[in-house]
Amino acid sequence: MVARIHGLKFVANTLRHDVINMLTESKSGHTAGPLGLADIFAALYFDFLNVNPKNPLDENRDFLVLSNGHVCPILYAALANKGFFDKDELFSLRKFGSRLQGHPHRFSLPGLESSSGPLGSGLGQASGMALVLKREDKSNRVVCVCSDGEHQEGNHWESVLFCVKYELNNLVVIVDRNRIQIDGSTEEIMPLKSLKEKYLSFGWGVIEINGNNMDQVVHALDKSKHHRKGPLVIVANTVPGKGVSFMENNYEWHGKTPSKDEAEKALFELSKRRVA
Amino acid sequence: MIRKSFFSSPEFDSTRRGFGKGLLRLGSLFNDVWVLTADLGGSTCVNNFKDSFPDRFVQVGVAEQNLVCVASGIASMNKVVFASSFAMFSPGRNWEQIRTTIAYNDQPVIVVGSHTGLGVGEDGATHQALEDVALMRVIPNMVVVVPCDALQAEKAVFSLYKRRGPSYLRLNRQKSPLITTASSSFKLGSAQVLVDGKDLVIFGCGPILVEAIKASVILKNKGFSVAVVNIHTIKPLDEESVVKFANKCGCFLVVEDHQISGGLGSAISEVLIRSKPVKGDFVGINDEFGESGDFNDLFWKHGLNSERIVTKALKLLRNKKNVKRVVKKSFSKKKVVKKSAKRFVKHK
Predict the structure, then answer these.
(1) Is the pLDDT of residue B342 over 70?
(2) Is B307 annotated in the active site?
(3) Which ranges of chain A does DSSP label H, i.e. alpha helix?
(4) Taking CB atoms and an 8 Å cutoff, what residues of chain A touch B63?
(5) Contact (CB<8Å) A132/B61
C-alpha cells in the first residue's frame, strides 16, 4: 500500500509539471482546477480505471466523463502519461489544428468519452452510460468528475435525481470541491454550503475526503468498488492551485495561465516536492 | 402522388401517432432502439413502446436538459435513442445540451419534438413551438425532418434509425388528412412532388401542406398550373429539386406552420439566392406569438389556409405575367395585356 501511494504521488507531481508546462505554452486556459485535481486523476488513471491505451474503445473499459471540461489539461496530461498519445503533443494545447481542444472534443483524441465545456451536462451523460451497463448486466464502471461550481446548474440536479431513481450503483461521481469559480469564491457567488448533506438528502451514498491526500483518494475509490446501494459521490475537498504556493486558494488562478517567470517558480516548487 | 381518398373522403391521423406506430415496429425489429421521454409519454405516443420494451424505455421526469444528456450517454453505448418531448421544451429549453452532447458528440439521438406550430391550438402561445426548425437547422451534423402526415412520420422513424446520427423529428398534435399512401416512397433529403405544375411552385412541410394542396386545386380551377413540393427534409435540403422547380415555375411560395424567419422559407431562400434568384413569398408566422383557440382559426389568422395561400399565390402569378408581358412586348403588347388582365378578372 505504501509503495502504491508513493507511486501515485509521484505520478500526480508529474501531471502537475505537465499542466504548468502546457499552460505556459498555450498562454490561455485554466490553471488552478487542474492542479487541484492532479492527485485524483493520478489515482483514477494509474490505479482505479480499467482503460487500455492500446485499445481505447475496448468493450470492457471503464468510462470517465469529465463534466467540467475546462480542467481538461489534467485529463490530457493523464491520458498522455498513460500512453494514449505522445507527451510532446501536450504542448499543442489550444493551438490551431491541435487535437487538444480548449475544451475536450470526443473525436479529437483517443481516450475521451465525451465532449464537454458547458457546465452541468456531464452527469446526465454518465448516468445514461451507467444505465445501459446496468440494464445489460455489465461490470464496467462509470466515473463522472465535476466541479463544485457546476452545482449551480439546474441540469446537474436533474441528473442527481435520475441517478437515484435508477439506482446507478455502477456510477461514481467525484466533485472537485475547491470552492472557487471564475468570479470569486463559490460561497460568495452562490453558496453551495454542504454538498455532503445535499447529496445525502437526495439519497446518495457520500464519502467526503481531502482530495489532495492520496491515501484518502485511493481509499475512497477502493470503497466505491464495494458500494452496492445506489449512486455514490465522493466530495473531494481540494486546494485549487495545489502544489504551487502562490496559486493555492487564489481564485484569480481559476482562468489564467502562468507567465514564463511564474512557470519557472512553479516548476521549481513542484520539483522540491518531488524530491521530498 | 397524393392518395385518392384525400379529395373524396380524407382519413385523419396525427404525425405523433404515426411516429408512435413506427417506433413500436422499429423496436420489435432492432434491439438497439431506446426511447426516452420527459413526462410526456402519452402525448408523444411512446407508451406502446414502453409497454412492449420496458428495458429499453427510460422516463426522465420533467427534465428536458437531462433528457438529452442521458440520451447522449445511452447513444454512446451503441444505441439509437429517440428522446421525445414537446418541441417547446426540447429543443426549446435544452438547445445547448443538444448542440454539445448530441451534435458535437455526433451521437445517434433523434430529438423528437411534438406539439409544434399553431396546430397545438388551445394550449396557447407558451406551448406552440414556432421556432424549433430554425433552432435545429443551424446546428452542424443535424438532420431536420418534418413529416407531412402520419404515414410519412412512420417511415421517417425507420430512415432516421438507419442514418444513426443527430436528428430532429418535428411532429404535430392535431390530426390531419393523410396525404401520402403506405407505399409512397420516403427518402431522407429527397423532396417529394405532390402536385406537378409549371406556373408557380409551393414548397411546404408538415401537415399544413394539406392547405397548399387545396390551394393548388383552387388555382388550377382558375387556370394556373401550380406545383406542390413536400420538403419533408429541411436539412439536408434537396437543393437540386428546389432549383429545378424554381427554374421551371419562375416563382415560388413557401408554406410552413413556423416562424417565417429561420424556417423552411429561409432554407430555400438561401439556396435560390445563389442558384436561381426568382420572385417568391412566404406564408407562415410573421414574427408573432400564437394564442389559444381552434387551430383552424389560428391558421386562418396567420394566412395558413388555402384561401389565403391562393391570394398570395395570385399576387406572385400576376407579377409573373407582367414579366411575360414585357417579353412579348415586341409582338403585340395590347393584345397580351388584355388577355392577361381578362384572365385575372375572370377568375377572381
Answers:
(1) no
(2) no
(3) 2-26, 32-36, 38-43, 72-82, 122-135, 154-165, 186-189, 195-202, 214-225, 260-275
(4) 158, 161-162
(5) no
**Residue B168 belongs to what H/E stretch?**
strand B167-170
> Which residue shows C-alpha cell 461490470?
A139
**Cell numbers that stand for B53 in this block:** 420494451
For chain A, the domain total comes to 1
Q: Which CATH number goes with the domain that contains A239?
A: 3.40.50.970
How big is chain A, counted in residues?
276
pLDDT at B340 over 60: no
Contact status of B70 with chain A (Cβ, < 8 Å): yes
pLDDT tens-digit profile of A29-43? 999 999 999 999 999
Cα atoms in the 13 Å half-sphere on the side-chain side of A262: 16
Q: Is B141 on the interface with A (CB under 8 A)?
A: no
Closest CB from A129, A135, A158 relative to B73: A129
Out of A116, A127, A154, name the one closest to residue B73 (CB). A127
**Domain range enclosing A149:** 2-275
Distances (CA, A) of B109 to A240, B63, B234: 37, 17, 18
If DSSP codes are grouped into helix, strand and coil, which group holds residue A176? Answer: strand
Q: Does A159 touch chain B (CB under 8 A)?
A: yes
Instruction: Say whether B69 and A105 touch across the interface (CB within 8 A).
Output: no
Give tens-digit pLDDT for B243-263: 999 999 999 999 999 999 999
DSSP code string of A26-95: HS-S--HHHHHTHHHHHHIIIII----TTSTT-TT--EEEESSGGGHHHHHHHHHHHTSS-GGGGGGTT-
A68 touches chain B (CB under 8 A): no
Instruction: Give me the total of CB pairs closer than 8 Å, taking one residue from chain A and one from chain B.
Output: 95
Give the Cα separation of A178 and A150 in Å (integer).
Answer: 12
Residue B79 touches chain A, beta carbons under 8 Å: yes
Identify the CA nearest to B144 among candidates B115, B122, B170, B165: B170
